[in-house]
Each structure stands twice: as C-alpha cells, then as structure tokens.
C-alpha cells in the first residue's frame, strides 16, 4: 500500500507571501520569458542562473514568480511545476 491514500495527491510547493502563480506564454531568449500571472498582469520573467541548466522551462508551463518590488512588470521565476503537479493545482482550484 502506498504512503498517500488520497488518490495520488502530492503536497506541492505553494506560493509564499510575495509569489504568484503564472503561465509561460512566450520564450523571449536570453534567459527571459513572458508570463501571464494569476493577478492578471503580463510580466517579463527572468530565469535565474541556478535554474538555467537544471530546469527546462517551456511555453504553457506553470511556474511561481516573484514580482520585483521596484518594477511591477518584471519578475523572477522561483519554481516550475511538472505537468501532473500543474494539473493537480487546476483540479484543486488554485489556478
């Protein structure tokens, strides 16, 4: 019997105070992507160096972004969800 008996539900990383869910809409190149955030704002997001070679980000991926304090139209990507995790977030009504 598996450890989690609730139909395969996994505990996912949820946004902290300054993070929002976003969907990648466009790859811009030079470690930049265009994202549509859950708060309705389109932002240019930066893929940080620690994620560049380890995490592959594609269009339509669900990510967590941290909007910049001093420029609201820009953000940093802090986390990328796998497809099944994104589906779980949709099913539970988070995004």
UniProtKB/TrEMBL annotation:
Domain S1-like as annotated: residue spans: 8-82
PROSITE patterns according to UniProt: IF1A, S1_IF1_TYPE
Alphabetical list of Pfam families matching this protein: eIF-1a (PF01176)
CDD domains membership: S1_IF1A
SUPFAM superfamilies, A to Z: Nucleic acid-binding proteins (SSF50249)
Keywords annotated in UniProt: Initiation factor, Protein biosynthesis
GO molecular function: translation initiation factor activity
UniProt similarity note: Belongs to the eIF-1A family.
General function of this protein: Seems to be required for maximal rate of protein biosynthesis. Enhances ribosome dissociation into subunits and stabilizes the binding of the initiator Met-tRNA(I) to 40 S ribosomal subunits.
Protein name: Translation initiation factor 1A
Taxonomic placement: Archaea, Methanobacteriati, Methanobacteriota, Stenosarchaea group, Halobacteria
